């Protein structure tokens, strides 16, 4: 906050300064119970809070932003019994921030820290925690409806990482730039009538699912842009009452024939890889979803309704083949260059978005506080690097021991585990030789099997011929037997006739 802003906002100025261990803090009181404390560090934090004195019970808004605090909990703020707004942005908090005991707190700002988990109390309605490392949020006994949660640029993996009481009755949920790869809309069932804005852009979502049969009745905006979704499934009918759905820059190929988004007034599907037939069918049922402005298509593509598409006989099979080729692109320089460019482009888009959000929430910090923050960050980074180094060294020792025991069991001469690269090369060459030998044995076995199979087939052919000849012989024998029986009968009849003639 610069001097001009202070002059505009300042009504009753209580200017308290104190030096603790050479660190100067300043507490400023504005009207309507707003207090701001500047130049605060862990070492002078309690003194700085104490400087507000008996007025703490009357404070409803406490601004501790742009300081160098690395730890805080509810007990530190126990004297602020009526606190409704707490700004802790632009500090250096890490790990867990637990403020669940602040029973009156309604708005909490944790933007631009290094927090991993957050616990808030029953009355929190607005939680802003952009640009952290958050993997989980818990709202203790919170039955508030109309909650607004902004958790952009964090480390959330699933909607379930946000506690059920946080998700229930939520009105705005911003999870842009997290690590989500699958969405289950059932996790937002309790917010089906309150949810207005759901932002899931710039994640890694490839699958959307739900087992329930419901619609977000109040939804205005659903943003799924810059993800990895390949199939516009019938699941998206959950957002059929929304005004705006953004599916830009995914991997969309097919559209479910049961998808009906006729009430959606603004749909963006540009930057995808549609099959022309499925796109044409969809646009036939949704004539108001023409792309504006139209996409620019390359020579292999067609344009339908302003979108680019390709004629694909087996869309998912074609895409699967393309993905397999991408996996093997390390061995195909031409494809590797193309895929690398695509990967770099997607990563650049994500990084640009991160920079935009960081700039959007940036605030000027006192130079001395900035240096103190940098010291805390560097100290934390040093501890983390030392931990990683210890793990790596342990891994290297384990690898050396494994190489040593493996070389010994294989009786490989002149293999030293200290020279890990040479040891690994020798062991790999050993197994490659074994593999080649096994492949030769397998080839010989396959040839033997094929030879045996050919002999069996020849014997089966001979058997078929013999079976036919036997059948023909049996048929001829039967005919001969029938003739013999017939001749025997005639002989007997003739004998009787001659006997009768002789008798007469």
Automatic annotation (TrEMBL):
Residues 314-498 form the LRIM1/APL1C-like dimerization domain. Residues 1-22 form the signal peptide. PROSITE patterns: LRR. It comes from the Eukaryota. Residues 442-469 form a coiled coil. It holds the Pfam family LRIM1_dimer. Keywords: Coiled coil, Signal. PANTHER family: SLIT RELATED LEUCINE-RICH REPEAT NEURONAL PROTEIN, TIR DOMAIN-CONTAINING PROTEIN. This is LRIM1/APL1C-like dimerization domain-containing protein.
């Amino acid at each position: 906050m610069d001097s001009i802003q202070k002059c505009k906002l300042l009504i009753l100025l209580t200017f308290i300064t104190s030096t603790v261990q050479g660190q100067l803090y300043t507490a400023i009181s504005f009207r309507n119970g707003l207090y701001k404390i500047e130049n605060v560090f862990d070492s002078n934090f309690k003194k700085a809070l104490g400087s507000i004195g008996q007025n703490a019970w009357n404070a409803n808004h406490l601004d501790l932003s742009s300081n160098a605090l690395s730890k805080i909990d509810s007990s530190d703020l126990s004297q602020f019994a009526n606190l409704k707004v707490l700004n802790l942005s632009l500090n250096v908090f890490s790990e867990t921030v637990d403020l669940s005991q602040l029973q009156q707190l309604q708005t909490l700002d944790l933007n631009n820290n290094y927090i991993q988990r957050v616990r808030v109390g029953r009355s929190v309605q607005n939680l802003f925690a952009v640009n952290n490392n958050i993997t989980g949020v818990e709202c203790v006994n919170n039955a508030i409806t109309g909650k607004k949660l902004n958790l952009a640029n964090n480390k959330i993996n699933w909607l379930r990482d946000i506690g059920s009481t946080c998700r229930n009755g939520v009105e705005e949920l911003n999870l842009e730039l997290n690590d989500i790869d699958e969405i289950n809309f059932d996790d937002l069932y309790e917010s089906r009538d309150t949810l207005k804005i759901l932002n899931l852009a710039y994640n890694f979502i490839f699958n959307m699912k739900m087992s329930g049969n419901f619609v977000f009745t109040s939804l205005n905006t659903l943003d799924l842009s810059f993800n990895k979704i390949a199939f516009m499934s019938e699941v998206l009918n959950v957002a059929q009452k929304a005004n705006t759905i953004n599916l830009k820059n995914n991997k969309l190929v097919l559209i479910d024939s049961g998808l009906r988004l006729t009430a959606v007034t603004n749909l963006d599907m540009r930057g995808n890889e549609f099959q022309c037939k499925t796109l044409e069918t969809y646009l036939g049922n949704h004539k108001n979803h023409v792309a504006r402005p139209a996409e620019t298509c390359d020579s292999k593509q067609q344009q339908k309704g302003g979108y680019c598409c390709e004629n694909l006989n087996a869309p998912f099979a074609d895409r699967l083949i393309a993905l397999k080729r991408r996996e093997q692109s390390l061995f195909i320089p031409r494809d590797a260059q193309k895929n690398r460019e695509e990967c770099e482009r997607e990563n650049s888009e994500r990084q640009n978005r991160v920079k935009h959000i960081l700039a959007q929430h940036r605030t000027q910090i006192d130079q001395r506080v900035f240096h103190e923050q940098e010291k805390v960050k560097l100290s934390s980074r040093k501890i983390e690097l030392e931990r990683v180094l210890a793990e790596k060294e342990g891994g290297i020792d384990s690898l050396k021991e494994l190489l040593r025991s493996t070389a010994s069991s294989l009786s490989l001469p002149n293999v030293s585990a200290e020279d890990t690269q040479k040891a690994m090369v020798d062991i790999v060459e050993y197994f490659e030789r074994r593999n080649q030998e096994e492949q030769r044995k397998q080839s010989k076995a396959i040839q033997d099997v094929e030879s045996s199979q050919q002999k069996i087939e020849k014997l089966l052919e001979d058997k078929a011929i013999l079976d036919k000849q036997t059948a023909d012989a049996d048929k001829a024998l039967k005919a001969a037997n029938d003739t013999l029986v017939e001749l025997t009968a005639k002989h007997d009849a003739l004998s009787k006739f001659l006997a009768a003639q002789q008798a007469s």
